[in-house]
Amino acid sequence: MSTVPPRDQPLNEHSRILVVRTDRMGDVVLTLPVFSFLRRRFPRARLVLLAGRYGGAIVEGFPHIDEIIWYDDPPRLVPFRVMLGRLRKERFDAAVVVHPTLRLAMLAFLSRIPLRVGTGYRYYSFLFNRRVYAHRKTAERHEVEYNLELLAPLDCAAVAPKPLELPIDIPSAARATVRALLERTGVKGGYAVMHPGSGGSAREWPPENFGILARRVVQELNLSVVVTGTARESALAEGIARAVPERVANLAGKLSVKELAALLQGAGFLVANSTGPLHVAVAVGTPVVGLYPRIPVMGPGRWGPYTDLARVLVPAMTQQCDDCTGRPGVPCACMASITPDTAYAAVEDLLAQGTLAKRQHVHES
């Protein structure tokens, strides 16, 4: 006799649950606690993530995700009818649409998923039959907390503790590649990572400030510096690397997401804007210094590092300045007001917790 419950019955430990998060890497990492709490509440349920390939690749192998369905076939999305057919075939009992779009809401509705959880504040929210009313743009809570609120309609109350347990799977091949890259670029012993870009998702600290900070880390902390970023950010990373006379490596565009995780896990600390690698670093237990604007929707209240091994820096200005428009090529005067001296003091304060000694090399598998 089948143990699968009738389609009109409440969820139980044999249910099939789809979690939808198709945006960026950091967003997907901050959605992992949803799976941890679902697994605790429904130990034998089938838990599936619908994700984009770039954002979702970092969580492949996460122990509480049974399968990832890819939403795109880069550079295009999977055709609507093809994706609809796939979701219907899976016969999910519930869908939690963490970051909604009209297309995703339509897919959940037309897939005949009986229980569809999503926001109550979109014009298409009628497509969800369990609605949660929370305005994320007001940034009254952290993104992790907003994500977990969506579990309440599934009878799965969840409060995220610090630190989160987010075991990112890092293949041994990725670790070996990172060790070889570090050796090839002359990085020996302890190192720090700096990630100066944001992919357009946040206001950025000026690259010249990253360069000044990198020099101080090399000269005063006796650490090497590894600069990371996407292939499009390689010129930005190279400019920072040139500001440091020695013991610096530019690995922008040279790492897969799993290799980036391996690099971050072995680092003494990371300095970054509000971007995905910061949340990956938190997930693998690496201390971070995060640089954030005062704009609430981008600020640390919603997107800050969800860990105690962190220092968060925001501009001293109490008002948003007209320069902070996010236009390409326009520097943000507010972010520039965070001085390299302030950032270096944050690094020293962070390292005073005694975390650096544990991170002298990339971890062995």
Description:
A 6-stranded parallel β-sheet has the order 3-2-1-6-7-8, sandwiched between helices. With 365 residues, the chain is of the alpha/beta class. The N terminus and C terminus are likely disordered. Helix content is 33%, strand content 15%. Strand 12, helix 11 and strand 13 form a beta-alpha-beta unit. It folds into 2 domains: 139 residues, Rossmann fold (3-Layer(aba) Sandwich), CATH 3.40.50.2000; 187 residues, 3-Layer(aba) Sandwich (Rossmann fold), CATH 3.40.50. The chain is built from 14 helices and 14 strands.
Key structural traits:
Rossmann fold, globular, disordered C terminus, six-stranded parallel beta sheet, alpha/beta, 15% strand, 365 residues, 14 strands
Number of H- or I-type helical stretches: 14
State the major sheet: 6 strands, parallel
At CATH level 2, the architecture of the largest domain is 3-Layer(aba) Sandwich
Corresponding CATH superfamily of the largest domain:
Glycogen Phosphorylase B
Query: What's the β-strand tally?
Result: 14
- Secondary structure class reads alpha/beta
Q: What is the third-level CATH name, the topology of the largest domain? A: Rossmann fold
Helix content: 25-40%
> What spatial form do the alpha-carbon principal axes imply?
globular
Total separate domains: 2
Distance between the first and last residues' Cα: 43 Å
Q: Which runs of at least 5 residues are low in confidence (pLDDT < 50)?
A: 1-7, 357-365
Would you spell out the secondary-structure blueprint of this structure?
Elements: E1 16-20, H1 25-29, H2 32-41, E2 46-51, H3 53-56, E3 67-70, E4 72-73, E5 76-77, H4 80-90, E6 94-97, H5 102-110, E7 115-119, E8 130-132, H6 143-149, H7 172-184, E9 191-195, H8 207-221, E10 224-227, H9 234-242, E11 248-250, H10 257-265, E12 270-273, H11 276-283, E13 288-291, H12 300-303, E14 310-313, H13 333-336, H14 340-351
Parallel strand pairs: 1-2, 1-6, 2-3, 6-7, 7-8, 9-10, 9-12, 10-11, 12-13, 13-14
Antiparallel strand pairs: 4-5
Helix pairs in contact: 4-5, 7-10, 8-9, 8-14
